[in-house]
Structure formats: structure tokens, C-alpha cells
Write a structure and sequence with these properties.
The structure is a homohexamer.
Chain A lengths: L4 E6 L4 H15 L3 E6 L9 H4 L6 H19 L2 E4 L11 H14 L3 E4 L9 H16 L16 E4 L13 E4 L4 H8 L7 H19 L8 E6 L3 E3 L3
Helix pairs in contact in A: 1-3, 1-6, 3-6, 4-5
Amino acid sequence: MTQKTMLVISAHSADFVWRAGGAIALYAQRGWNVHVLCLSFGERGESAKMWRQPGMTLEQVKQGRREEAERAAEILGASVSFMDCGDYPLRVDDAALFRIVEVYRTLRPEFVLTHSLKDPYNFDHPLATHLAMEARIIAQAHGHCPEQEVIGAPPVYLFEPHQPEQCEWKPEFFLDISPVWERKRAAFEVMAAQEHLWEYYTRVALQRGVQGVRNSGRKMQYAEAYQCVYPRVSDAF
Amino acid sequence: MTQKTMLVISAHSADFVWRAGGAIALYAQRGWNVHVLCLSFGERGESAKMWRQPGMTLEQVKQGRREEAERAAEILGASVSFMDCGDYPLRVDDAALFRIVEVYRTLRPEFVLTHSLKDPYNFDHPLATHLAMEARIIAQAHGHCPEQEVIGAPPVYLFEPHQPEQCEWKPEFFLDISPVWERKRAAFEVMAAQEHLWEYYTRVALQRGVQGVRNSGRKMQYAEAYQCVYPRVSDAF
Amino acid sequence: MTQKTMLVISAHSADFVWRAGGAIALYAQRGWNVHVLCLSFGERGESAKMWRQPGMTLEQVKQGRREEAERAAEILGASVSFMDCGDYPLRVDDAALFRIVEVYRTLRPEFVLTHSLKDPYNFDHPLATHLAMEARIIAQAHGHCPEQEVIGAPPVYLFEPHQPEQCEWKPEFFLDISPVWERKRAAFEVMAAQEHLWEYYTRVALQRGVQGVRNSGRKMQYAEAYQCVYPRVSDAF
Amino acid sequence: MTQKTMLVISAHSADFVWRAGGAIALYAQRGWNVHVLCLSFGERGESAKMWRQPGMTLEQVKQGRREEAERAAEILGASVSFMDCGDYPLRVDDAALFRIVEVYRTLRPEFVLTHSLKDPYNFDHPLATHLAMEARIIAQAHGHCPEQEVIGAPPVYLFEPHQPEQCEWKPEFFLDISPVWERKRAAFEVMAAQEHLWEYYTRVALQRGVQGVRNSGRKMQYAEAYQCVYPRVSDAF
Amino acid sequence: MTQKTMLVISAHSADFVWRAGGAIALYAQRGWNVHVLCLSFGERGESAKMWRQPGMTLEQVKQGRREEAERAAEILGASVSFMDCGDYPLRVDDAALFRIVEVYRTLRPEFVLTHSLKDPYNFDHPLATHLAMEARIIAQAHGHCPEQEVIGAPPVYLFEPHQPEQCEWKPEFFLDISPVWERKRAAFEVMAAQEHLWEYYTRVALQRGVQGVRNSGRKMQYAEAYQCVYPRVSDAF
Amino acid sequence: MTQKTMLVISAHSADFVWRAGGAIALYAQRGWNVHVLCLSFGERGESAKMWRQPGMTLEQVKQGRREEAERAAEILGASVSFMDCGDYPLRVDDAALFRIVEVYRTLRPEFVLTHSLKDPYNFDHPLATHLAMEARIIAQAHGHCPEQEVIGAPPVYLFEPHQPEQCEWKPEFFLDISPVWERKRAAFEVMAAQEHLWEYYTRVALQRGVQGVRNSGRKMQYAEAYQCVYPRVSDAF
């Protein structure tokens, strides 16, 4: 049987850890191929600690962020690749967009995780979402690289932004990540430059866990919440 | 193993046929106990044809609508009960509300189907939704009839109103009803007083079927669409 | 040829002047039967000036407001009736609701003007809108007083509240009231108790006039703006 | 100098502790008169632990909840009163509404705190908000008990519901409650029947604290978030 | 008397047929000049059938789509022009934008039809809408090609997307297209590559027809629905 | 003590006068450094009167608009600078964006005023808002020009567009500008090319003044209204 694939499209190299680390660990544990595509290293906007070191260069920051992301991905059980498109601001031209299309066509993911549709604190995040959606649409087009096979309609789920209400993001699905929580927390700890976020996102997981129980009666302690872009289709509620 | 239950709360006696007949037939076929609770017979607002007959009385209209609903429910495989709360306007006092609470506590449904949150063409529909949600909340309260066992948190799904966009209703879940379509269509035909709706809701099912395919790649021909009130909780997307 | 009718449902006895006086005067001038139904006299919430007079009684305030409204309606060319349902808070039971239904069935209006859907400064206004819409729906039901003829589907337009953005009200239609502006202004001046509103609503009419020009190129100086509840249907844009 | 007053309108007897305990303690500490008006004791919906005790009666539960609320209010520095309107469902008739109006007219608060505008998990909460707003409007009307002095326009702030995004509630104001955090936490611990909420609302305060820093640069650890019903008016941003 | 003009701005070469074919045929029949501007041929995203033919080239697909569009436009009574801006993704630079401005200034349309403001299934559609609106604004600017005459404020109507609720598109106007339905259907049949859409859009027209009746009482069988970008301005409701 | 700074980012050279002239004059009067950054001169879209003069050139229009803006700024007490990015359409590349970032880093404003988030009549306005927000975010990034000091989190307020409801703009803050009204009005009169706007924006100020009173009881005659992008953070309501 073919191994199934889950694709995570992350604006910066650490986003996938805080926001989707549980989903990644859960599906990796189930034997899926989980791939994380980082559009940038987050080398300008989310590396304050490194930039405070004297003599720091852009290449050193990128390298540092890359290594962290690779270690975190390894802990979670995912592979990771980087597009180095810059951040603050992230800028993606059509050539880069078509490389994302190629990722869709090559990996043929069952579903895709990415950022929120809006974020007034971070314009790279909604841009990443836009690209993830636009590349998915192009990958469905028979006339784009017509020699390749088009993809179907993988669902797109939006992980939780830092300040959810300000981003008009609404949790529509709670994923129980209790079985892999320790792994997600271990991945947090790789992110030495963002230690202030460890406790923040541990609390997010606990709050979403309580809410998950409240919405279902299911026993669970830690959860990740997602918004859904497209309607679900099934033969059962 | 205990038989599972699905509850449909319908403002008028025919709503459940057009809007949730496929879900009812599908779950009945799977051996579930499906119960339809009609808050009114629709004796004033949705019985134009009967009222055009000379000498028609309110009781005759109610009786006619009751019989139709019973026959339709039988075709779909559901039981049906009626609260006779009046329609145009539907009016439900707390005593009636507590009877709905009792239905929740007795049937202990896995999930509930009801109307949309708004409907500028029909104020009975959103009132039914409000009551379905309020009764569910009260049924969760330990202090309401404390000698009874409280219920958990059954999801609530909102079926499609007649003019979806005007009701600010959005399809978030498509249920493939292709296997039971003939049964739903047969139930339509019981509704002799509303023949003009047979083709309308056949087309709705076909359109939602096409959209279901478009959102999933799943092969299907007929669908019912639902909006979700509460977030879904699961260990898988 | 039958005279056409326009119906205005106003929560308090002065609302119709500020908010729909131009529409009333325009259609009256065109020979329509224009009727204003005031649910209350506004005797508690909008009669500050009268209440400051020593020895004032509720009946005197009501009588004063009634006389003002009658004089204003006369200037505008409309008839007016009063339901005396109380205000601050307005409270309407089903018996009163059915009297509004009867107004619909008797007058058979081409269209209806009423308040906004929300108003955080005045809860009587959205209640009036709710009643205007609910009565319209019941008047369409064959089973309500089945011996009477049902009505069709008269459009409902919502006139401008005092603080439009706070009421989530949006202008979707601008009515050029320039030809009858003097008449509307004359009706303002009857409202001696609310002199502070004369200039306010003159400025509203001027601003909407400028916006009307901007959205159409039509030459006009004064306008009233309306939100539309139901979609327009026509054979031309 | 006159002591200023802050009014909290709470659906159930514990809501004010979790949701506004910081604001209460802060203003009490500043010498304000802080009054909490509880519409019900939460005797049915939020007293699961008490109901599990054999032989428990409704009066005992009410008494227990009243005592807890009084102790919590005392810790926070507020006075508290109870209207005993029932819960699950809360039901408030016009006589009770007018008692709330009287509270406004007597206390003449500078501002008011209450629940969110929507809550699909708890219909008592938005009803409390509606009443708080409706009573405020009636208290502004010259014709309601015309012998009393009307109130001005006290701002209304909506405290955080249990599942903010599901309630369409958005934080628009963060109040730094760090100086009184220990007091808020102490009040939590009075609520023995709802121990599971202690940690939940401690985490809420920490998350809002981090977000408060992020939106201002202000040094702070704990915050409460509020939505604003009416626009702010001032001579400075 | 000068012939009036209606302008349709269509992202891909077939969109105008499914979405606005009725409006086009109706106004053409009335003697208007109807012009369709296709930003792309839809050669990549909406030409699956052609691409399945062996040896197919991009130029052949474009030529095929052009011919189909020309035939469909002829049946409907419109002229059509093509900008060949590419699709999946459509990309329009300022030079192309200014060519659209020129179309506005040359044709001076009474009103404009284009796509929805959002579409999560197709990013070319909202881009076309954005361009149609931006070009209209620039065409109003005295300083753009100051030697030309500026245009007025032609209304912009948005035709129905494939999955209306997902696009946050709401029908605000129903156009009765019954008199020209056969012509619209004939134009469908030119689109041999998209046969699966013939029945889909026939059902759309029938559903909108039923809804048109429901909202007006007007006798009609087929309709097209439109959302309105700008408020309507008139001297009559 | 350091002088505090307020920054206004204006799409065209006159916007700041109509929309924020009161705030500018008020803070200038209080001794703040107020700087206005005009992204364009408004030389194409908002200079109709100049373009009607025979032989007018683009440079003359720009020069005329620049002089007007400088005179208006002087009256209001602000400095002004121009980026000359073009208008109708405004186009800003990353080099220009980084110049705005530099303005943030150099001026280190306490807060920022700019346009609305949407405007279907003017696409330059929301683009200016986007740039103001994006530049602010980049100015917060340690990795952007790491040798410079990052900025904090200055609040962003959105001034009133020409047709507020159509722009989905909502007043959340009313600034009392009564003490500086004469100065704002004097600045209007510099804008000789847009005389039709003098009365329009005088009426806007009066309407907002009345609403300011209504929302607070504060005595005031003229106001400017603003929407808030980020939540307010404080130790007092």
C-alpha cells in the first residue's frame, strides 16, 4: 500500500513547530510521509536573539534557523525543505509559486496545513496561505505542465495564529494531540531563540484540549485547533 | 450493542423531508434509531393547497399534514412525533421547551439536525433552531431534573434553507446521499400539497452532489449540505 | 386604475419623519396612498422636553406626540395610525402582531419601509423591524385567517438609523428626495420637542445627496438611504 | 469627592470571578464602589458538584452558590446582590428588567461590564448582556419613572466568554491586572465546585498578558480582555 | 439616439456564457451594444478535455477556446475581445490594466458585469473583479490620459460563481432571463469541452427562477442572480 | 523631555486634511511633532480642476498639489514629506516600502493614522493602509537593518473614508476636535481644487460631534472618528 502524505506550508522555519507540531507528530507516528515546506527561514522577523549577538550575519542566522528547523522536524518525524524566499517581507514570484505547485504534484498530499487567512501582526503568514491555496489550484489545472498528472482536491486546514481573534481565525476542528504531546514539547525546546513561546504554546495546547473535551465529551488533554477552508465531504457526519 | 440515535428537530411537518431526508434514510438504513420531532404541523404557512379546498378546518389540515409526515417518515425509516405548537407563528413556552429537553435526555442522540440560524422568509425556522440548541444546553445541566442523567455534547448540524445565501447559511459538510436517493425522492412524493418543491429539491441534491465531488474527488451524484454549529473534535483530520 | 399603497412601520411616532419623510412625500405627491403605522407614541424615550414640564402626565405626552405625528403626516401627505404598544420598552404580543398582519392584508402595500435590523442604542427599533417582517410573513400564509386573501412579497426597505455604522446598517439604495425636500423639512419643524434633530437630519440628507451623485452621476441635492432586506427582481438592471 | 461606581452584570453567581475578577479588584483597590448584580445563582447549570451530593435541594444549591459568590466578592472588594431569576434557562420579565433599570439609576455607574453578545454554549449569557443593555437604555429615558434623574451614557464592556472564537467575541481592550492577580486567584479558590476552572482561567490571564505586551510594549504579566459595545470618546487617542 | 453599451469582464473565455449569458442575450435583443472582454482564454485551467488529446499545444488550446467563445458570443448577440493575459495564474501588469481603462473610456458602458469578490477555488476570478473595478476607477480620473473624457459611475454587478456560498457571494438582484433562455442554452452547447456544466447551469437558472418568483411574485422561469458592488440610486424604489 | 511624534500616512496629498486635520492640529497644539507622509500627490485622481486648465502638465499638477499640501500642513502645525509614488494607480515597490520603514525607525511615532482597510471607490487608500501596516511590522523586525533599533508597537488608527459604510469602516473612537476646528476649517480652504469638499467634511465633523456627545455625554461640537486596528492596552477602562 502506498504511503500517504501530509503537507505543511510554513511561512517561517519555526511556525510549523508551534502551530502544527502535534498534527505532524501524530501522522508521522501513524506511518505517513509528513513534509514541511518553509518559504523562508524567518531570518529577519523571528530571530531577535541571534541578531543581538555581535557580528551576526544574515547567512549565519539563516543557517541557525535551518538547523533548528531540521532538528525540530526530525523530532516530530517529518522531512523539511526550505525555499529561502526572504521574510519581513516574504516575497514569492511566479517561479517560486510554480516550485510549490511542483511540490503538490510530486507529493500528492491527502491534506495540507498552512496559516490563517489574515494576520495584522504578520503579513508573511496570510501570504503563505495565499500561495499554498494558489499553488494547489494551479496543480489542479490540466494545462499547467500538461505532461504531469493533476492533483485532486486535498483539504486545506489553517493552524492557529498567535492572536487568533485579531486574525478572524476560528477553530472549526480540534485535533487530539495528547498521545504525541511530549514529542511536540520536545520540538519546542529546540527553538532556543524563542524560549518565551514554549510556555505560551503549551498553554494554547491545554486550553484547546479543555475546549475539545467540552465540544465532544472525548477524553483528551492537549489539542491543536484548525480552521477549515473547504467543506468536508463524507458519507457520515 | 446499543442502537445509536439521530434526532431531527423540524419546525414544520414537511421540513425534514426536503432538507434532511437523505441523512435520515442513510442512518436508518445503517440501523440507527432516527427520530423526527416536528414542532408544528405547518398547518397555516405551508398548506396552501389544502386551504383552497372549501370547508377546510384547522383540524383537518393538521390531520392531513400529520398523515403525510408519518408516511414520509415511514418511507425514510424514521419515527416521528409532533408537538403541535402552532405555526406562522410558531410559539413555544418553557413547558414545551422542557418537553424537548426530555426528548434529548430520553433519546440521547449522537447528533442533531435542525434549521438555519437565520431565515428572513420564515421566522419559525430560526426559532426551531434556537429551541433545539437551548433544549440541548438545558439537557446538559445537572440541576435540571437532577434525578435524570445529563447528556454529553452531541454535535448540531443545520440543514439547507430554501434560499441559502439570504439566510447567511454556508455549507460546511456535504453528506453523500446517493445510495438512498430513491428513498428520499419517494418521500418527496408523499408531499402532495407541495408538488412544486419536488423538482426544486431534486435539483438542490444534484447541485450539492456536483459540489461534493468538486470538494473531494469522491464519486457521488446526490448530496445534502449542512452547516456546523460546533467545532468537530477527533484524532484525525 | 387602483391607487397603489406604501406602508411605513415606525417604532415611535416621530421616526418616520426623520428617516422616511422624503420617501413619503415623494410617493404621496405621485398619488399613492401612503400609510404610517406607529407602534408607540415614543412617550417615554423620545419626549424629554415634554417630561421636563411640571405636572406632565403620560396621557398628555401621548396626546402631544400623537398630534405632532398627525400634523407631520399631513404635511407629508400620509395617513397615520397608532398602536399604543408602549415604548422603552416597546412590547408587542401576538394580538398586536395579528393587527399588523391585518394592516398588510387590508392595505396590500407595494413595499414597506421600517427600521434597521440592529440598534445598540434603541431596542425598540429592531423589534419594530422584526414585527414588520414577521407580520409580512404571516400575511403570506394561507392558513392565517383563511377567508382573507394572502399578500404577495412586497419588498422591505430599512431606513437610516441615527448612528448607521453602529447598527451594522449599510446604504444599498439612495432615493433622490430633492423635489420634496422642502416638505420634509417642513415636517421636521413640527417636531418641536426634538429641535436638535432638525439640523442633524438636514445634514444627513445633504451627505446622502452627495453620495447619491457620486454613485450615479445623477444630479440631485438631497437623498434618503435605505438598506434592502430581500433581493430585487426585475427584467432590467 | 463622590466615590465612583463600576457595575458588573453577571448571569450566574460565579461568572464575575473568572471573567472580571481582575477589573473588580483593581477598581476596588482604587477606592471605587464596585457592585456585582447576579441575575441567577447558577443553581442548575453550573453546580454539577453540589447536585452530585445525595439529598441536595434547589434551595441548598442556591444558598451554597450565594455564599461562595459573597465570599469571592468580598475578597475582590465588591458588594454583590442577587435577583434569583432562575438559570438554564434564565428568564427575566419586565418587572425584573425595571429592577435592573433601578440599579442603574441608583448606582449611576461610570461603566458596566457584562457578557458577550453571543454564546452557543450558554444562552443565559447573551440574555444577560441584552438585559444589561436594554436596562441601560431605559434608564436613559426621561419618561421612565420621570420623577427620577436619567443616567448618561456609561460605556459597556463585554468580558471574555469560555470559548471566545465560538462566541464571535473579539478582544478590543486589554486591562493589565498584574497588580491584583493574587487577589483574583484567591477569589477563584472560593469556587470549590468549579476547581477545573482555576487553571483554565489562570492560563487565560497569562495568554492575555502576553498579548497585552505584544500590542503595547507595556510590561505586564496578567490581563483581562474586553470587547467594546460603544465607541470610545475622548480628547486623546 | 446613441446605442447604449453593456460591458462584461470575464476572466476566462467561457465564464461569460455560464454566468451572464442571459443578461447578454437580453440586452443584445434590446438593441444594446454588448461587449465581452476576456482576460484569458482559460487555456490552462478550464480546458481539460482538449489537453487530453495527444500532441495538443498551448496555441491550439487558445485557438480552440477563442473560437468557442466567439461562437457563443455570436449566438448571444455580443462582440468579444481577448487580452491573452494567461490563466492559472492570470497575471495582469499595469500596461494591461491601462488597456482595460481604455476599453471603459471607449465603450462608456451603462453598467459592467464581472466575477465575485472572493473565490477560494479560482484566484483568477477575484483578480478579474479587482481589475474591472480598478480600471473603472482609473477611467474616472481626470489626470489619466487627460486628453480623453473621463467616465461617470457605471454600476458593477457580480455574476454567480460556481459555489456561491464558499465565495461569500450573495444574490441581491435576480434578472428574469426567461425570454432569452433558449439562446443562453444554445450558447452552452458550443462549450463542447465543458459538457458537464450544461446541466449544472441549467439547474442554476431554474433555481434562481424559482427564487425570483418567491421574492417578487413576478411570473418567470429562468433567472440569473447578481451581487451589487455599489448602491443603487434612483427616484423610485 | 523628548518630544513625542504622531505619524500620518496619507495616500494622496490632500487626504490628511479632510480626514485627520483635527487630530493633527490638536497634537501639534500640544507640542507634538506631527509628520505627514504623502505617498503620492494625487496628481491624477484628485486634481480635476487643475487638469481642466489648458496646457496643464503632470509636473505642474504635482507642484500645485505639493504647495497646497505644504500650506495646509503649515496651518495645522505639521511637517509633510512626499514619496511621489504615482496615483490612480498608486504603486509602491519594496524600495519605497523600506523608505517608509525608515520613517518609522527615525520618527518612532507613538501612534499612526492612515486610511481604511477597504474602499471600493479608491484602491490607493487601502493600499496605503496596507503599506503603513506592513512597514510598521518590518520596522519591528530585528533582522531588518539590524544595526538600527527596532520600534515598539505603535497603535494604528484608521481615519474616515468618504463613504464609510461602503468601506466596511466603523467608528470605534471619536476624537473631540472642537478646540482646533477653526484651524482644520482654515486648512480646508487651502484646497482650492476641491471646494465641493469643504462643506461635506464640515458636516462630517458636525455629525461625528453629535454622535460623540451621544456616546459619552461629553460636551463637544466637532469630532473626527477613527477605527482601531489593534486592541487598546491600559490599566484603566
